[in-house]
Amino acid sequence: MADDAREPPRGVKRVAFALVIGLVTFVVCTALVEAFVRRFIPQSSLRQRDLMFRYEPFVGAEGIPGIRGVFANRSFDTRIEHNSQGFRDREHAKSNTAGKFRIVVVGDSFTWGHGVNNDEIYMKVLEQIDDRVETINLGGPGGDPPGELKVYSRRGVEYQHDVVLLGFYIGNDVVTRRPRADGSPPDWGFDETGEFRLIGREAPADEVARIRAASEIRYSPGADRTITQQLGFWLRRNLQLLTLIDNRRDYLAELLMGSRAYAAIARRLGRGERHDFPLLDLCVDPPGQDVAYGWRLVEATLREFRRTARESGARLYVMMIPDMYQTWPSYYATTARRYGYDPQAYDLTRPNRKLRSICDALEIACLDLLPGMRESMDDGHRLYYRRDRHWTPEGHRLAARALRDDLERRGWLD
User: Fold this and answer.
1) Long-range contacts from 398-402, C-beta under 8 angstroms, 24+ separation
2) 169 and 32 in one domain?
3) Same domain for 30 and 103
4) pLDDT tens per residue across span 24-77
5) What is the span of the domain harbouring residue 17?
6) pLDDT tens digits for 351-384?
């Protein structure tokens, strides 16, 4: 009787057994799904920006020197390698010891090489097809012309070069920021008198150290973390299933909000049916107040870029990077109608003509990739990843060939 009294009730045994079976089943199923994700849809092990970049008090962010890793999603699986300067390139001497035609390249994620390996980025392909050229890639994701002017004036001018190439992405490089005097890092903008200048302050060393330390604590295991926090960090860093869910969240939300069902429900609720389509803000005449300000900022930025380049004995050269929708008319029309816009009401070449007119007025050399890319897309070539609208390796190769042909036409390589 005494032994029977010490045994747990049968109901408790059943519950405990069910919990163990459930836990084992969950772990096994998670492991199987994780293996499937790693094999068939690998995700980036460096998906958090602070794992590849860190705070910088003048530009705002810089690549972590010497980092190597993977940047992958369902569309691509690429390898990232930063040089000792924190840029996605090999090492370059500051002086032009090889005597080649030297191009310093600045730009956003297209120039950084989102979706391709280091040697597949357009300026590196240019080197491969013309050995007279040496290119120095200072691109970084999330950049825009005012920010790229800071990169060039602080880092690019250190290199002896013939040309500074600005990769201008039509999709989002017409920015409308209005920097504040107490803001940090400083940014190019117009002060209260209308003068174009750097506005804001650089954070002191102790503030920079605190910001970087906060990023390290957030994305790296620290001694002050609890066991639960350590486990959560390890899972986020190593379980690609969680990365897959995180990577798909915004994409699935965009699909939902662009669907006819969502539009119908929105109409029934009186919330309208339009989904954001920022490119179209640049494609109407007359432009809105923010767009007009953005173009004014572009013009002032290019003027300052040109002045800085001339002080370094170089030319400024602007390459227009089209938005995917500009190169794919049928997909644009379908998407515009789904988002609640009349595709015929917008001129998708208008921003390119506007930028060319600014470059012509400032006597800045300019290359528009839109005509050639639209023709190539019409011929069935896959130049963009449809999901995130960045170039495929084929898109980078086309850009490199167009660059080489334009440089030849201008006689700069002679």
Assistant:
1) 398/369, 398/372, 398/373, 399/122, 399/125, 399/319, 399/321, 399/369, 400/122, 400/123, 400/125, 400/126, 400/128, 400/129, 401/129, 402/367, 402/369, 402/372
2) no
3) no
4) 999 999 999 989 988 887 776 544 444 688 899 999 999 999 988 888 776 788
5) 1-40
6) 999 999 999 999 999 999 999 999 999 999 999 9
Q: Do 9 and 144 lie in a common domain? A: no
Q: Which two tokens stand for residue 367?
A: 């290359």
Per-residue model confidence (pLDDT) at position 50: 45
Residue 71 lies inside a defined structural domain of this protein: no
Question: What pLDDT is stored for residue 47 in this prediction?
Answer: 47
Residues 168 and 292 in one domain: yes
User: Is 239 among the domain residues?
Assistant: no
Most confident among 162-171, 207-216, 237-246 (mean pLDDT): 162-171
Give the total number of structural domains in the chain: 2
Residue 304 lies in a domain: yes
Longest dimension (CA), the chain: 103
Can you tell me which residue has the tokens 């609208």?
Answer: 389
Domain assignment of residue 263, yes or no: yes
pTM (two decimals): 0.83
